[in-house]
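Continuing the series of single-chain predictions for the mutant panel. This is the parent chain; the variants come on the following pages.
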Amino acid sequence: MVDSVLIIYTPLGGVKSSSEAYGIALSNKTYKVKHVLISEKGGVLAKLTFLLKNFLSIGWDIFSHRKGVIILNHFESFPYYFIARLVSARKVLFVFHTDLHGYLENINSKKRILIRSLLYFVREQDATFVSKSALLRYAKSESRSGYIYNPVVCNYSKHYSPVFINNKNNNIKIFVYIGRLHQGKGVGVILKVIKKLKSSEEQCFLYVYGSGPELGELKDYSKKLGVESQVFFMGYSENPFIEDEFPVSPDALLLCSGFEGFPSVLVEALFHGIYVISSNCNTGPSEIISGSVGASDFSYNSNGALFPVPDLSMQYDEDYFGEGEEHLYYILKNFDFRQLSSSSCKKRRMDYVSEKFSQDAFIRMIDNKI
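Parent structure:
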């Protein structure tokens, strides 16, 4: 019986939060869990310095846990994967927190050759993905690899906080975005759609939670579009759902990514009863919203709605309004958010997520892997 788990992770936002969620879920099931940080934020020099200072101590942690389970997260874990193999670790899960197939298609050729060369040495049974669609896109079949969904570890008592069930004027629509602010997240597309809603005399507001390299450009873009009084950049929050930072009850959470591995923010929003609207990028959103792989680009149910992935290279062209933008505009303008925010709809969403992405479901997936 395995009772110890070593979780090796990086400080990247999604990887860090997922690793912490793994630890909470496993600890709640009596596993002895140790987290080990293998990098720090910063440039190549800072990461190399951290590696040189900590390589031996992390190697010792791996050796000490060789009879348990070692969970390695994302690409920076490659050196430690080889150490785990060297010491004949009993069970290793190498978790890729992205659409690996899409990632390899979109990086430069030198980096692609390097990553592919390293992946060649990763055993099929060790490779683990964060969604079924990510697995199928890379491995083409489930084979001996597997996938594990990130577990929900939110505080259930927060579900019924007044901030999430507050009745408000139906003529005003409130949307939120939570995530990194960089080009791949498509926040510029959302701003364009807010502008068109304003032009059609819709009263709506967007609250943006997050930080990143595009923050300054997005603020300037909101002014250029004339929506700066409707878009509020709230900064980074460790967890706005838990901290009750929303100023009002949101009608929906928006996601407009070009690619994802498993967008946990959709699960967290649903867990709190919030309707979600997402681009149907290749991995993640359709499994969360529709419950299956391969949902059509425009589909919806009581959990949320999917729309075609916009051309993110055109997101800062205010005159361009493609298929993705049109579908998102249609959803935000025409959906009955009062009905979708009813107590019964909220509860169905919370029950759905609590079952499919529960800590117990995560543990079952882990147990199947080990």
